[in-house]
Design a protein that fits this description.
The complex is a heterodimer of chains A (about 130) and B (about 150). Chain A has a domain of about 70 residues: Nucleotidyltransferase, domain 5, CATH 3.30.420. Chain A has 4 helices and 6 strands, in the order ααββββαβαβ. With about 150 residues, chain B is an alpha/beta fold. In chain B, strands 4-3-2-5-6 form a 5-stranded mixed β-sheet. Chain B starts with 16 loop residues before the first helix and ends in a 10-residue tail after the last strand. Classes of the chains: A alpha/beta (about 130), B alpha/beta (about 150).
């Protein structure tokens, strides 16, 4: 630091680093403390028919109906587990991913049951999903 | 640090960095604080996991997307403000009239009963919005033990 030597008038020419570094560290701490990593979100698309419309007619042959209850799922009149549904749906998706899946949801079922089912559908690649309420 | 040598007048030729850096950091803080204020999601809503679903890319997301939040009690909120069903219907219809069809994203708590979600979906489809998207968590980044076992 030979700055003051080269100056004619002996003014304070030194760059004061200490406050700057203080401030920088304060900021660093501030950002570290306030930094919050967000969860990565995903989206599940469904189509929702008009409230007054009835479930689609049975003439569409490639149609699968799954009912969501409070405690589980019903496929073709049988209580099924999520794992069973998973294998069934991936098998069906092997034929075609355009198969219409009708999901009927009971009013008392928690939203998590619906989301889990939709997740499995999207895992199999099924995109033609409609949600009805009962 | 020999720049003072060239300076024959010996005036204060050094640039004082401290105020400049202060201002720059003030600006950084301002921007960070305002960005945080923008995304005012309801912290009480805990989403269900959906690891296989498509990721929500905030950059590619349609800016017209209406985010409707439904908490575990079935309370509906938009941008952090609680609304009732008729208000929601009015907002959705007004938006629809103004900009046509737009995407709807429902952030429903995993404990929310389907009847409350149904009310929101019926309101949307009643206004002519058939495509509804549910938000879920693809990957957990926040580990705060809030999930049930």
């Amino acid at each position: 630091m030979r700055v003051s030597k080269s100056r004619n008038k002996g003014e304070a020419a030194k760059l004061e680093m200490t406050p700057m570094i203080d401030v920088v560290f304060q900021l660093l701490i501030f950002f570290l403390v306030t930094m919050k990593q967000e969860d990565i979100l995903s989206q599940l698309e469904v189509s929702r028919p008009a409230p007054e419309s009835t479930p689609p007619p049975a003439q569409v042959d490639e149609l699968l109906t799954i009912t969501v209850y409070e405690k589980g799922y019903v496929l073709k009149g049988r209580n099924v587990s999520l794992q069973h549904l998973d294998s069934q749906l991936s098998r069906l998706a092997g034929f075609s991913t355009k198969i219409s899946v009708v999901i009927k949801c009971t009013a008392g079922s928690p939203h998590s049951n619906l989301v889990k089912l939709l997740d499995i559908c999207s895992k199999s690649g099924l995109t033609n999903l409609s949600v009805f309420s009962m | 640090m020999a720049f003072g040598k060239r300076n024959s007048h010996g005036q204060g030729c050094e640039i004082d960095m401290t105020p400049m850096i202060d201002v720059v950091f003030q600006l950084i803080i301002f921007f960070i604080v305002t960005i945080n204020l923008e995304q005012n999601y309801n912290e009480d809503i805990h989403l269900e996991d959906a690891p296989h679903a498509r990721i929500i890319n905030t950059q590619d997301e349609d800016p017209r997307t209406l985010i409707i939040e439904v908490d575990k009690r079935g309370w509906i909120s938009l941008h952090g403000a609680v609304v009732n069903k008729s208000q929601l219907a009015q907002i959705i219809r007004r938006r629809f009239n103004a900009m046509g069809e737009y995407p709807v994203l429902i952030r429903g708590d995993y404990r929310t009963k389907h009847r409350d979600i149904r009310g929101v979906m019926d309101t949307c489809s009643g206004a002519g919005l058939w495509k509804i998207t549910f938000a879920a968590i693809k990957e957990h980044k926040v580990e705060n033990g809030r999930r049930r076992g």
